[in-house]
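Consortium newsletter contribution from the modelling node. Members have asked for a concrete example of what our holo predictions look like. Here is one, prepared for the flavin mononucleotide complex that several groups have been discussing at recent meetings.
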Amino acid sequence: MNLGTLGLIGSAAGGVEKLRTRLVEPAMDRGWRVAVTLTPTAGTWLDATGERQRIEQATGLPCRVNPRMPGETSPHPPIDCYLVCPASANTVAKLALGLSDNQALTTVCEAIGARQVPVVAFPRINAAHTRQPAWNGHIEALHRAGVHLLMDDDYWPLHEPRTAPGKDLPWKKILDALENITKFGSSESV
Ligand SMILES: Cc1cc2nc3c(=O)[nH]c(=O)nc-3n(C[C@H](O)[C@H](O)[C@H](O)COP(=O)(O)O)c2cc1C
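And here is the predicted structure:
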């Protein structure tokens, strides 16, 4: 089955080290073509382990971190659905405010405003992030903009900082949600 092209944005949060094995390759097995963009910090992390190169080998596309030069064309094909996963608290806040100071944010901020394809995000956060005074406003802004946030207890029960080392992301539920959203325009638990 051909599900189209998934624009996968990874930021510097737990689980990004497993992006290829738990999200990119399973998404490709389900029928997505996957184009990956990383925030600069996530890019540094995955460069250090060789994962960025392995993502490129798996997807057959450049794993973007830096913006293109003005005279260059985009190295990624047109995107049918964006998934920001894992989304750090920092990346969530910047998306809500429309801050586009790296390639990953530039891409998703434009998609949020364009409203042509679904934008889905899995905030990989802890309870302290949600008590930051600006957090609720960011989440409301993203909801109002039509972003599908996968963040109730079914997806990610909150933990206090440094109390859940190795807590795994609900990879399969995230991939299932993507299919629901792209097929039916909604997800049962967003
Ligand atoms: C080892 C490590 C793990 C981290 N895990 C998380 C996380 O799970 N969620 C989060 O919001 N921030 C986490 N952070 C903090 C972010 O990496 C930091 O806020 C960074 O500036 C995010 O940048 P980005 O959003 O541009 O990728 C972690 C930092 C380190 C060093």
